[in-house]
Amino acid sequence: MKDSLKLRFLTEDEVDRIYEKSLSILSEKGVKVEYAKALKIMDKAGAVVDYATENVKFSRELVEGALKTAPKAFTVKGSHERHDLELPHPRGSFYTSTCVQSMKYWDPETKAYSDVTAKSWAEWCQLAEVLENVHKVAIQTPMDVPEETVDVHALSIQLRNTTKPLMILAYCPETVDYHFELLLAKAGSVEALRERPIALTYPTSLSPLKFKPMDLETIMQSCRYGVPIVGNSLAISGATAPVTEAGTALLAVVEILAMLVMSQIFKPGVPYIGSTYTTTMDMATGSALLANAESMRSRAAATQVIKERFGIPAETFSFMADAYVSDGQAAMEKSLMPALLHLSGSDIQYGMGRLGGSTFASPIQMVIDDELFTIIEKCNCKIEVNDETLAVQEILDNAPDSQFVTSAHTLRHCREIIRPSLFVAKGVGSWEEEGAKDLYERAVEKYRALKQQCQPQQLSDDVLKEMDNIVKHADSKLAGKHN
User: In the chain, what are the domain boundaries?
Assistant: First the structure.
């Protein structure tokens, strides 16, 4: 995967040094795993387990054995084949994901944030379905359902309103089983789910070097059904990780590698993606910044190690903005960071529609991000150099006194030039005649047009009934709500 990186923040020696340090930490310090069932399996597989402290150490041999069985390439599958994502991207591009767990939703009609609801969450999924450059749909947090089962309700809504691959994660250990019951209900059988998993699960570290029961159960259930795992480090520079970029990158690499080893112990060959969600604590406010330069650089460094030494696909949290509205800051953050992290090797970039760091979801921003992807992809793609594109004969035939407007060569290639629908490409007179609208206003118009295409997925009555029963059972058992 080394050739896929066009921008390297680390030298080869530095990559090797981080890799070796990660092996030393895993074999000498180890990690804390707060789940007895997982400890027993890892002990049997050859890890050094201290049951009293819940510490687990992985030898070099165990780690490198896991790296050999982790797939280097695989396909992330949606409910329909047309949404499948081949990793790495066959054209050297990248895929996108919407933002996760948002509790506040931007209403373009009231121009204010309000709680995410089951209705707005369903509309979000439907909008993601019709946006061409949204490739994966991440779970959010409807606030008008029982708190204890909010993620179960959210997944049920996802499954009813989009056919694209899903990013899912449990909010507590007790709901993990219900997630897989819903996936099975949609798939139809265990065999069908294994053949077309339709989702990726996102276990996360509790930095530094700790793993919760919820995340271990998620890894184990994913292994059972063959659902791809995205091992995600949430290291915060200066808070739960060293303040330096290199130190944060190292901690993220160690935590991602630990989950990779666990997954391959539970089921060798299960698809695994390394994901960096490193952030930086602002020393003035204590806030975790998502779109600052240091977070981007630590993610890029960790991604380089994941790609060049682990040889597996990588995801980064990079379509992010600390800006609270769709302004110039948001546009800059959501252009620069995805572009640089794509060049640094990221296969999937998360956060479309996100504003306010880890807080808000905006359907208007998702429409803008959909268009930004087109520009970033074009800017970063390879320039084709051959006899046709060099157009030597065209130059000889038309220079110095002719032009290229009416040439056959221009006709053949003129449609390859992108014309983003949200960006001004007309004269100032035409722009003024059309109302002198800014980017946000044009995005609102496109959003309203797209809403006319939005609709729930057509699922059979039997599937809908089974999903309803699963959600009702979760409410009854976990929230004490009886229907």
Answer: 1-382+418-483, 387-411
78 in Cβ contact with 198 (< 8 Å): yes
Q: Give CA separation, 290 vs 16, 49, 238, 414, in Å.
A: 27, 35, 13, 38
Q: Which two tokens stand for residue 473?
A: 């059972």
**Joined tokens for residue 130:** 């019709």
Q: What is the pLDDT of residue 20?
A: 98
Residues 412 and 417: their CA atoms lie apart, in Å, by: 11
List CB contacts of 286: < 8 A, sequence separation 6 or more. Answer: none
**Neighbour-count burial of 353, counting CB atoms closer than 10 A to its CB (0-12 exposed, 13-18 middle, 19+ buried):** buried
Residues whose CB is less than 8 angstroms from the CB of residue 121 and which lie 6 or more positions away in sequence, other chains included:
140, 142, 154, 157
Other beta carbons within 10 Å of 450: 18
pLDDT in tens, 460-483: 999 999 999 999 999 999 998 765
Residue ranges in 196-349 assigned as alpha helix (H): 213-225, 245-266, 293-305, 328-343
C-beta neighbour count of 392 within 10 angstroms: 9
Convert 164-233 into a string of H (helix), E (strand) and C (coil): CCEEECCCCHHHHHHHHHHHHHHHCCHHHHHHCCCEEECCECCCCCEECHHHHHHHHHHHHHCCCEEEEE
Each residue's pLDDT tens digit, 278-309: 999 999 999 999 999 999 999 999 999 999 99
- Identity (one letter) of the amino acid at 436? A
CATH no. for 1-382+418-483: 3.20.20.480
pLDDT tens, position by position, 10-50: 999 999 999 999 999 999 999 999 999 999 999 999 999 99
Of 311, 97, 69, nearest to 199 by C-alpha is 97
b/e 409-419 (16+ beta carbons within 10 angstroms → b): beeeeeeeeee
Alpha-carbon gap, residue 346 to 313, rounded angstroms: 8
Cα–Cα distances (Å) from 10 to 6, 297, 341, in that order, read 12, 10, 13
The torsion angles phi and psi of 33, rounded to 5 degrees, stand at -120, 110
Distance CA 294, CA 408 (A): 48
Question: What is the DSSP code (8-state) at residue 77?
Answer: -
